[in-house]
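Handoff note, outgoing to incoming analyst
You'll be picking up this chain. Sequence as last confirmed:
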Amino acid sequence: MFVNRQQELAYFNGILAQSRSGPAQLLLLYGRRRLGKTTLLQHWARYSGFNYTYWLADQGPSALQRRNLYAAVSGIKAADSPLMESWSQFWEWLADHLQQQYSRHILILDELPLASAADPEMLSSLLEVWNQQLQYRNVVLVLSGSNVQAMEAVAGPDSPLYGRVSGEWQLRPLAFHTLRHFFPTWDVSERIALYSIVGGVPAYLTWLDPNRSLDENLAEVLLAPGSMFLAEPQLLLYEQLRELGSYLAVLRAIAGGHHALSAISRASMISRTSLMFYLSRLQAMQIVERRLPVLLEDYQRRRSKRGRYFLLDPYFRFYFRFVAPHLETQTPVAETMKAIQKALPKLVAKGFEALAREWIRQQAQGSQALSPLPFVPEAVGAHWNRDSEANVVAINWRTRDILLGACDWRELPVGEPAVDELLQEKTAVLRRDLPFQGVNWTFHHVIFTRVGLTEAAQAVFLSSGGLVVPLAQLERGLGP
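Most recent structure output, in case you need it:
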């Protein structure tokens, strides 16, 4: 299923329309496994109107890779392809081959880091032939890969191709609203729950069954013996990491709710000095993210020690919280499901908060006249200090406006005590963290709710100018 990659397609089609000093284009597409890079590139090339070649690298010997690539470009069998002694020889042949073609040719080299790791001369020789010949050919050369660090290095200052790349795009997971295409009969609360578990990774969504309930998918698909879900995180990590045990300990600690550096160190039993190395590597792989309180000013952010670490991928959080212990202890699926069902509301509540923050960002990017927000935020996130934590906060430093939000995932209407806590206690605590003790700051409030507010709570909240966002409005605001 090809879903919602219009922005990416528009970008690549725009590249095709660009005019440069030479007709050639050199593009990079990268992103973690399972995001649909191959599907996107093949879809784009197929409908571009130009001839294209797709080639997938592997970990085989360089000579074999060159022969397979020659066969793909020539349209012949690999067994009939000549053996080329070097990548220089191959690139020179490619330049001559492309010179004979009148129409533009798209050449996609997928999982490039596998080939370049086998022979570093691949990229340096490409630069030489690119400078002398390939840049004058009517070719769009697309280099793609799942190793984010390796692909970022291809365009970096230490790469032979530095300064030659026409454009690069990092592919991200699908947005929440696309789940309607995968699970059209599910209601919005079920899709929020699912998104909190597997996120927007296309492969994960296609592995699940839209004709089954969420619980049935968890028990009979995700936790089923032999399921791809069971091996996926460790497989992804194994491809790029050594000392896997230490990384797994760090990930388990974060998934278990330990987000401060000291707490992760205690839970993983890794010294803080060593822990910083593992966290840095996981951040570079974009598996872990360090977040700071949103109300910190720029000068504070540069030296703050209040950072917390979070897993970026919802399935990583779910896996290390539930699936990994299930596999390690060989717990029966029925018992694991009981643990999941007991803890799931809290897990989904965190996903609900993330979607609420994204909703605010989306409204800020749209038309100000149509936005329900009382001001245009400059930053959106969460804020915490020793006294309190606010999971939905938006700020405009210039106008001195604050939007403080609450998310309620319970299947009960929000009552007056929760409204009073938001309007009084949380506002007072947050005000103390603002410059000049919050003087001349204007507070606004929003409640994201699954069920709604009681009549009394709604009367109090709306009279204070508060904004109520029910699930239907949340979903509408997160997509086209």
